[in-house]
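Recall from the previous lesson that a structure prediction takes nothing but the amino acid sequence as input. Here we apply that procedure to NAD-dependent epimerase/dehydratase domain-containing protein from Candida verbasci. The sequence below is the only information supplied.
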Amino acid sequence: MSNSIFITGGSGYIGQHIIDQLINDGNKVIAIVRSETSGKKLQSLFSSSLTTEIIPDLLASYSLKSLFEKYPNVTTFINTAAIINFTSQDLEYEVINPNINLIKNILTQIKTSNINKVILTSSSAAMVGPDKAFGISGDYSDSDWSPLNFEMGKINANMAYFASKKFTEEEAWKIAKDAKFDLISICPALVLGPKFDANEEGTPSTTSIIAEILKLNKDDSIPEFAAGAVDVRDVAKIHSLAIKDGDFKGNRVLLEVGKAINQNMINVIKANFKELKDKLPDCESVPENYIGKPNDEKSKKIYKIQLRSIDESVKDLVSQLIEKK
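The prediction returns the following tokens.
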């Protein structure tokens, strides 16, 4: 039996993969977009399988009222929309507060609609601070909340991103407490893997670390980088699973398959792409026994599927980037 589903943020890297997964699983998808241009872009990718509706400003009062009246039988809402601005000069008023207000406005309207399930695309940034997110250690769990407070979020753009993820999710759970809808929070770590639209220019922001690796030459020094990561296709799959699987209800679900480490990713690329073997720097991979893993047993019991390896995510994205040249 198919479901009809609203989704925001469908034009983005994760959003496109989620829409594809939902459609492949037999669902009817209504993507809420900000402009006619965004709508046409999605329609070109998914044709008649997708309906698009233009809402220029989700922060506006009653922005969703007409949609809920037009589609009274839609009972699931996936929110992947977020405000990200790494060049902001006013982090409080251009990043943190707008994200909090966005989810507040969306969920407050949903409370008076027929929606009975909300899936929030959050982030592991809501569970940890940058020190643990960008590190080889895995000393955290899927029950944790980021230690960042509001003032810490105003230090720089990276801290504002992390803080906004925490405060946005906290606001969502606060509203859901006395609402009739069930809330599910999907919290992926750094998202890697191929673009849905291989012809799209550039690379999504989270995958730019791979694009930067490909620019290195034999004698270049290797930038230090390590972060928990997960494949975008698995993020999409788990959003779809959450619609029908009751185990997701009322839970925060951490998605992290391992650590994306520059040295390790370089060696994966060199081993799988002969044209890059002699171009990229030589280095030793970080041994598996040095790499920490988060306590995510609760999340694994909920989503139940085997996640793709980071090696697979890297290989599939590099294949796209090489073909595009």
